[in-house]
Amino acid sequence: MWTTKTFLTKTKRGNILKIVREHYLRDDLLCGSAACNICPHKDDEYILDSKPHSICALFDYEHYLILDTNVVLHQIDVLEEDALTNVIILQTVLEEVKHQNTAIYQRLLEIIGKKTRKFYSFVNEHHKDTYIERNPGEKQNDRNDRAIRKAAAWYASHLSINNLDGQYPQIVLLTDDENNRKIAQEEGIVCCSVKDYIENVNGFVGLVDKLSKNVIPESCSKDALYPAHLTPTQIHTGIRNGKLYQGTFHASRENFLEGTSVVSGFEKPILLQGHIGINRAVDGDIVAIEILPKEEWRKPSDIVLEDKADDPGDLLEEDTELLTSVKPIDTSDDEITPTGKVVGIIRRKWRQYCGILKPSKFPGATRHLFTPAERKIPHVRIETRQSDVLASQRILVALDSWPRNSRYPLGHFVRSLGPIGDKNAENEVILLEHDIPHARFSEAVLACLPPDDWTIPEEEIKKRVDLRGLCICSVDPPGCTDIDDALHARALRRAGPRAYEVGVHIADVTHFVRPNTALDKEAALRSTTVYLVDKRIDMVPDLLSSNLCSLRGGEERLAFSCVWEIDENANVISTKFHKSVIKSRSAMTYEEAQLIIDDRSRQDEIASSLRVLNALAKKLKRKRLDNGALLLASPEIRFQVDSETHEPMEVQAKKILDTNSMVEEFMLLANVSVAERLARDFPQCALLRRHPAPPPAYFHTFLKAASQQGFELDVSTNKSFSKSLDAAVIPERPFFNTLLRIMATRCMQQAVYFSSGTRTQEEFYHYGLACPIYTHFTSPIRRYADVIVHRLLAASIGADVTHATLLDTKHADALCDNLNYRHRQAQYAGRASVALNTHILFKNRVEIESAVVLAVKRNALQVLIPKYGLEGPLYLPSDKFTYNEEEHFQICDDVILKTFDELTVRLSLDSTNLQHRKLVFQLVKPHIPGFSYEPEKEGEKMDVETVVAEKSNPEDNKGKSTQKKKRKDNAEIKSKKKIKK
After folding, report:
1. Residue 393: which domain range?
2. Domain-terminating residue out of 210, 235, 265
């Protein structure tokens, strides 16, 4: 049997188009109930029990549940609990959920897939007795509600047939739509709200806590604290008229009362300040922004706000003192930023958040405040009767709504992650907070893998270039098991100028990860391997990442090779690419390779190859720097971890050797060579990587700090900037130039992946590397971008076939968005792991160390400990220090503190706030009475004296001259301050 479905749609030209489709209906679709004596079920097709046990006191009889769409969308956390069973999910609901929220749709499919849950998916849209047409003028939502009621009524009738004794399951429709419930009751359908049903469930403690809170309409909010958000129609009209702007809200980590949003038409991000300015936007939300008049524009805040432990209730304090001074604005000031306010929410980007519960001070209270681990997220009010248990746990909470009359958003408890301080629970927090997919690989993914004892088939070797006879080696960090790349170099024997054959050999991951398989889709979702201090979250299963694809020493492996002919001046004469078979002679660490290069007694093939590579790499690097490439830096550290407990035992800054640079140079060269080939053969869909030049405004504070040290840096081009950085040297302060480069790194924009068809040729440029085109080819085990690049390159050289999605620019653009997001989140997760292990290391430890000032804020100094690569705020009391807003320095009596100053600080761990444990930096030197730390024990006094003595070594007269120059500079600054007054 079939019917027709008719659609009316509007074309781009405004014409109305009528579309008629055939819609097939069947009478043999099974109801899924074991209590049914009509449908011809097989034993294994029974999903719903014949006598379902009731757990709800409101319904003391056997029954099945039917859910409407909003119940699934808003109460998925309740549904994921084992409490509810024998549930019918209609096709109408499935399709609506899929259309509105793909993440919840996937979660629902997982529930349906578990046989123990007894969730049955009924195809009501194709059953002849449950399908309904949409009435003329009827809204789609109303039609779907009618379809759900029709299916509920059919089930009740269907199960009653031939059950004359009345012993059959009843139907209960769960819906929170009051109008839908009213109509259902009039039609004789038993129905109930989710809240009433769950609150009467017996035997499942904590289930009520998972109920999502109802949204209070903007127009009905009493005692409003916040302005009402505009309606979608008003927002759309405002954006179309140019009165409003759309952007993503990015909250500040240092100041929860401030955020920014990048919008088109403005060079600088729009500044959003205060409770009213942010107007209930949460980090990641897409918002509608109204730009304030120019006279109301402000500077970004220069204050670091500390987290308050108490709940101030539903009131908003005055924002002005917490943000910026309310003096008249000089619109010519470079630091003045376009300022706006949020007037509407276009799309919420809420997710589940990790954190801890702060139980109410009132005994027996069920309403509590939740503190998220992410500082950019506001506190959340939740209701729970388990506060005594949850107070010691890391928990997961979901946001439900943010009414106008509530200082904080409302949410509900999802689940516990484990005890606070437990290493596994804390790692789980890091992974969840940074949205890192880390579940075990599914059976479908594992089914795509070759057997554990897989070896390279002879027929595959015949298709490839056999390089097993070459002296190929890999050089990686210690403990590396996912070895992506290996190198070789050998002199070419021929007449004329000396030349070398140099090869970069990359693991051929695409041989195993084929397009559109479950393995490929999972790798695309994860996009990158995530490295925490004590664990690794692989992009592909361990069989590939640490075994079959890893270029381990002495084992035959499939590779994708980029081989150059290079002259002795490191000029590339020719380039060729081919799939290959290799057998690495040795897998070395950077330090091992460096020792071989430096050991002149070693004259074997490995040593010779490494020396050629090292010599050529230095020439390649020199060329890059001469072209304007920036040599930047970051404070990277390495932990020594106990092999049994996985607890950190020691931390130190990473050592950079010549071999680090050697490997880097040839990886860069390979990436550039591949990018050039892809752009030539796939001009519309090559996956490339660009690094935009930072806007001049990004350098403002950095340049002012450098000028205070006597250096006028030229940032007009990357080449002039590179030369300026090279020249900015203070001989008696060897770390100064590194510090300068660390700060320069923070002025940069993020490098991003993009599809070549979406940008002009000029936009391909990579600012940091000073090269016109670049991509990622060299790490396919840990980056999905490289997998796509391998597929494109293989198609380019005829080594593999192409496929539709590879050439689809729209698909490539969406892929790049996910790649950029996952790459960024992986970086943040790695940093969070470093912070966690630093806190564990300093749990019972205090250190006195040298430090340097990275930035001067209104109420704090941001300081860096070079020895450990650690940084954090050193708070300054306003009653002792005076902040110079124009020059960015702090004054206390004769002491002036500014960027790049050297200090001595005491490091300790503050665990008073369980959620935000933090390293505390206390000033030791220069000594300020009543503020600087005073050692109490003799041992601490000796430590302080040792550190201070190392800083001002009497053997180094240059150190004394530095101190003298500093006093002179400070005197000049003080005199300038008096003149300004």
Report:
1. 352-433
2. 210
